[in-house]
Amino acid sequence: MAQAKQDSDAANEFGYRRFKLGSFTFERDEYFVHVGWPGGNHMLAADAFLRAMMRDLAWSFFYGTVNFDQVFGTTNHYGNVDVFAGLYNPAYRKKNKHHVENFKTEDLKAMFEAMLDDWTNEGFDPFAAPEETGTAFGPKHGNNRAAITRKRLTARRMAGLKDDIPLRSDAAGNIVNRQLADVAQDQPELHAEPGFENEVHAFNFFGYVSRSDVTWNPSVCSAVKDSLICATTEEYMLPVIHGNDRVEWFVQLTDEIHWDVCDRDTGEPRARVVMKAGDVAAMPADIRHQGFSPKRSILLVWENNDAQLPELYAKGKLKPNPVDF
Ligand code: PHB
Ligand code: FE
């Protein structure tokens, strides 16, 4: 297992720290992030890199693979994480130019957090839609710690229940998003039998999600064993290309998202899926996908958190698609 070690180098000429992660090197300038490894190097736009890094950290390396782009990314092995360049890119693979190193989750997390903290300028919010944030570019100026340390909301049972994550309100500072101003904000009436007040629960799901101030960040609204109902508001594009290690169900609740769906390992295109309000899709366990949302839309993501799933799919004991038509 490689060592994640922060370089003690002073800031570069643009004011940004350099980082060393095993034999990977990371540096940023005014517009770009430069990633190096023995035998190769790569550039990503700084705003795209920070948006992807924000999701990778917020989701604790997520399910399966988080591709920052066609070259660089991470694969979660739940306890340890691969950091790779070119691993899922056939051109790199063919010439044996890919590179991968494995790190302990907590070591990698600490290094990525330090990088995100140092490289995020004042006024840039990597969770926000481009229309709702300032620029990521330029020489280092200030920080945006408040934005990058937001906690991902995960309900233990269900949002709004006693001892669980609270519902959102104006009073709590969760204002309705500019593009979801027409979403009704009334709450359902609840009439629980005496003694069942903490067991019977309901809330206005659309109203709750319309008050999210982040994009492409599914938050767990209800959990029943391994069944996680995650809600998210989407605008512009998913900042990562997600390589699934299990099936994910999507329910498009408002507006529309266009998904590019490709083979998980090679990136070969498989489908374009246009999801309109009311559409349901099962994303197979052997794909990578990226969503594009022309205006802010509400998406329900249904995740199965069962830790045995990646192995069952990898060994072919489960079919990658849950339904045949
Ligand atoms: C996904 O990769 O399945 C995903 C990630 C973030 C979202 C929606 C879907 O907001
Ligand atoms: Fe996904």
Defining traits:
alpha+beta; 325 residues; twelve-stranded antiparallel sheet; binds fe (iii) ion; binds P-hydroxybenzoic acid; five-stranded antiparallel sheet; 15% helix; 6 helices
Describe this structure in words.
- By secondary structure, the chain is an alpha+beta fold.
- 15% of the residues lie in helices and 32% in strands.
- The longest helix is centred in the middle third of the chain and has 15 residues, at 105-119.
- It binds P-hydroxybenzoic acid and fe (iii) ion.
- P-hydroxybenzoic acid (PHB) binds at residues 216, 218, 232, 234, 238, 242, 248, 299, 301.
Summarize this entry quickly.
With 325 residues, this protein is an alpha+beta fold.
Q: What ranges have pLDDT less than 50 throughout 5 or more consecutive residues? A: none
Order of helices and strands: EEEEEHEEEHEHHHEEEEEEEEH
Helical content class: 10-25%
Question: How does the helix and strand content classify structurally?
Answer: alpha+beta
How many extended strands?
A: 17
Strand content: 25-35%
Rounded to an integer, what's the Rg over CA atoms?
Answer: 20 Å
Main beta-sheet annotation? 12 strands, antiparallel
Give the count of helical stretches.
6
Mean pLDDT: 96
The ligands bound in this entry are:
P-hydroxybenzoic acid, fe (iii) ion
Global geometry: globular
For the termini, the CA-CA separation is 44 Å
